[in-house]
Amino acid sequence: MATKEKVREVIVHLLKVKPEEMKDGQSLEQALGVDSTEMVEVVIALQKAFGIQLAEKEVAKQQTLDEIARVIDSKKVS
Amino acid sequence: MVRIAITGFGIVAPPGIDKKPFWANVKAGRSSVRKIERYDTHLYPSHIGGMVHDLDAYSHVSSRLLQKIDPFSHMALIASEMALKDAGIDLAKENLNRVGIFMGNALGGWLYGETELRDLYIEGRSGVSPYMASAWFPAAPQGQVSIYYGIKGYSKTVVSDRASSLMAIGHATKILQKQKADLILAGGMEAPLSPYGLLCCNTNGELSTKNETPEEAYKPFDRRRDGFVVGEGSGIMILEGEGRAEKRAAHVLAFITGYGATCDGVDRIKPNPDGKECARAIRMALDQAGAKPQDIDYISLDGAGTQEGDIGEAAAIREVFGEAAKEVPASVPKTMFGNLLGASGAVDMIMTLLVMEHGLVPSTLNLEELDPRCAGLDYVTGKARPHNVKKALVISRGRGGINSALVMEKA
Predict the structure, then answer these.
(1) Which chain A positions have a beta carbon within 8 Å of B130's beta carbon?
(2) Quick one: closest CA in A to B66, which residue?
(3) Would you tell me which CATH number, out of the four given (3.30.70.580, 3.65.10.10, 1.10.150.530, 3.40.47.10), belongs to the domain B259-405?
């Protein structure tokens, strides 16, 4: 599965929202009203799902799915 | 002094969610007390309680918000919504800087707390929900309701054991009289039946251990009594000044006309069996209401079901009412579903509103062999008794000698 779709799946499952609510081109904050506390959970869930470490602010609520996928893909370079 | 009107209420309790099923079961004298089977309770000396069923059927709370809150906040949100609807209030049209929330709670949200504690040990720090910080503490429901509706006015959460919500309501009344707010959602909520919550309740030594006969366990004022039973739920009412209620042509259910509170100051758990400070709280409430003892048509008793608690409460009423105590119907409807701790005062007041509306005093279950030391009162036992109630006294007491009393008058 493409990274972006997996990211969407993780967020939809965690926040219990419908997949269509997580619109492309909109940030997490714009699309879902994600708050800073929910972001803590999102980061932890992404770390677990992709087996990577994410530094503070590498993934933020102002980012879109594409931007988050790019950050994650950059970590998988080995 | 401005009279404070009760213009609506919402109830989430073991006999039922919303007033129709609640009153139907209470009227019929049906007990909702059962063995607690949500988890293995065999180690708990007392493992019976009043439980709420089908909460989800009445909930409009999103599953996303449910991840972040404890059941006690959930019940408070449901009861608040019902209360506002009952009062015909749309908060979007109110000045939210002048709307307040006054809640009573004894324990906090322990189901959320103990689940996260377990996750800490299993998964480490990252296994703990970031919402732990805001889900467990006693004022969390006040916060959640204020966020849900955008309420920004003078608010408070009162923690005083089983007297919490009566005291929160009494305090709310004073704030409205001082015009520090125009509209207040007042009441309480409690979800004490989780593993840790039930442990907290058990260790006070005041719970009945008659687990094999749950419906008969709670027998206040009976010489065979061995304590009370706990229950979960929430009761919330809408309070506003008489003038404001009249102006919007609100349906006023009753007025709160008097309130008093005192402390026994003798023991960290047990009340003083002489009941003198409890009597003083009752007199404070009656004096403020401009009522004489013989004007009271119904007493909603605290009915702790403990040795000293019942002896003291009966003594307090005899002291204030004298011979008139024999003529005033008194009962403990909470024998049917348990003491809801932080929510018990609010639920007792809501019960009293229904008593006034229907002219029927619910029974005290299981009171069959009156303790002679508690004699001198007109206890309603057996079937519910038809009685016209215009003025009522509600008594709510807490561990360590807390006493509160409130007078209500039918509109």
Answers:
(1) 37-38, 40-41
(2) A16
(3) 3.40.47.10
CATH classification of A3-75, choosing from 1.10.1200.10, 3.40.50.2300, 3.10.180.10, 1.25.40.10?
Answer: 1.10.1200.10
What is the predicted ipTM? 0.74
Tens of pLDDT along chain B (411 residues)? 789 999 999 999 999 999 999 999 999 999 999 999 999 999 999 999 999 999 999 999 988 899 899 999 999 999 999 999 999 999 999 999 999 999 999 999 999 999 999 999 999 988 898 899 999 999 999 999 999 999 999 999 999 999 999 999 999 999 999 999 999 999 999 999 999 999 999 998 899 999 999 999 999 999 999 999 999 999 999 999 999 999 999 999 999 999 999 999 999 889 999 999 999 999 999 999 999 999 999 999 999 999 999 999 999 999 999 999 999 999 999 999 999 999 999 999 999 999 999 999 999 999 999 999 999 999 999 999 999 999 999 999 999 999 999 999 999
List all residues of chain A from 5 to 64 with a beta carbon under 8 Å from chain B: 15-17, 37-38, 40-41, 44
Contact B183, B239 (CB under 8 A): yes
For B184, list phi and psi in degrees, rounded to 5.
Answer: -130, 130
If you write DSSP's letter for every residue of B92-137 in order, what string do you get? GGS-GGGEEEEEE-SS--HHHHHHHHHHHHHH-GGGS-TTHHHHSS
* Domain spans, chain B: 4-247, 259-405
Q: Do B64 and A17 touch (CB under 8 A)?
A: yes
Residue A44 to residue B129, Cβ atoms within 8 A: no
